[in-house]
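User: Fold this; tokens only.

Assistant: Input:
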Amino acid sequence: MLWRRNLLVPLAALALALTASTGAGTAVAAPDTTVAATAPTASAAADFGAPGPYATAVEVGAVTTLYYPRDIADSDRRHPVIVWGNGTGGVPLVYRELLLHWAGQGFIVAAANTPQSNLGISMRAGIDLLTRRNADPDSAIFDRVDLEHIGASGHSQGGAAAIVVGADPRIDTILPIQPGPLADINAVHVPALLLAGQKDSIVFPALVRAFYNAADHIPALYGELRGADHFTVVGDPGPFAAPTTAWFRAHLMGDQEARAQFFGPGCGICADTATWSDVRRNSLALGLPATTA
């Protein structure tokens, strides 16, 4: 398909360039731009795009790359999970800054290494890996994985994969970013935030709205980021960092301030016309309160 051919070359070229400049390893510390950990359910700041409270580490495996809080072995809590799918031809390194941002907020990110993620097989394998590692006393993340709170996300083809994986009963929410068309959202039974780019000429906003329109059986939101094209999320995630973090904090950490960004009459993203060119909430999302406390 044309959108796949258009996407493959730039993402693959970027992946090669980043790989050449960043050495791979089995487990490495990420650049420390964070501060000491704070209370688990409190955001680092009202700005969810700001760095989180955790220093981070990266572990590159054969199928999955893990991004997680560096001192997780000494943590007094279990950390929720985000499984990630890449765009066509991409690898986790392409999205490193976003994935590290989530890890800095206290999530364990299991990013599928595959550049062809649409079936979601490698994303599900990430959950299986974390299940094994959580039960292994010799693992750095032993008994620190919150397997009861798992979200799925991805970009482009990986966004479609997040929808596919959303049918897995272990998933609690999905956040597809500019998802490709090869998925069936009717199989998803968890809340969804579907993100589009106003100036995306590969996955047109109308394609993302089609998923939103079909998602009348689940609480669903559609958000169109003003001025964003298909590659805005690549490298520095820019405007994607804050809303994606807030969505996962709301659904996987019970963060009430984050929840108010999406639900209730004071919906934060609904009022932020500088960031969003279009925000829509279906009837099931409109019926959810701003707080659950």
